[in-house]
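Chapter summary example.
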Amino acid sequence: MEKRIGMITIGQSPRNDVTPDLLNIMGEDVEIVQRGALDGLTLDEIERMKPAGDDYTLVTRLKDGNQVMISKKTVLPLMQEKISELDREGINPILLLCTGDFPVFDAKALVVEPQKILHFGVKGLAGRQKIGVLTPAREQMSQAEIKWAASGLNAVAFFGSPYIEGDEYLEGIGELAKMDISLIVMDCMGYTIEMKERARDVTDKPVILARTFVARIMSELLE
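The structure predicted for these 223 residues follows.
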């Protein structure tokens, strides 16, 4: 069986900050074909995609490493466009590199949404116990709690970006560690294995990393 997988980032490709950790689990012989929803867009065009009002906020990374915030409604058509490109090339499965909440996309291929994997898995582990969720931006905290509640989980969220310099994410982990929770979920594909290891150093709680959690499921699909 050919081990080939498509990956769609809501930012710009290639996501070389993510793929090495995925390949360490899925296998170095897996071929990754990447597309980015923001590929080819100018900074002015991306600026016009910023969230406004009660828009659902997504945080992602540009090719130069900078963080941007965009609204879900503006990026959905671009995501569908990139998914369709991979679908026409016969690439299957296609993994979304985002833990956001998305509608069903039109594709013949299997489109894998990390949120669904993460939520079902964490619910099986935590049950009715309260969990802590780390999300990249302050603006995402309330929507994260609502999103996890919709999956039947009692969650409290704090923020800390994986894309900006400094240890903001560790400060967020520290805040969650003070709370009465059973485990912590690093709820963004941008958080790294190194970040998880450092997070475990500042808390006695179990820590779940989205990218490796999802990569193990993908490995099962590709074997």
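To summarize the output: Helices lie at 19-26, 43-47, 72-88, 114-126, 141-150, 168-177, 193-201, 210-222.
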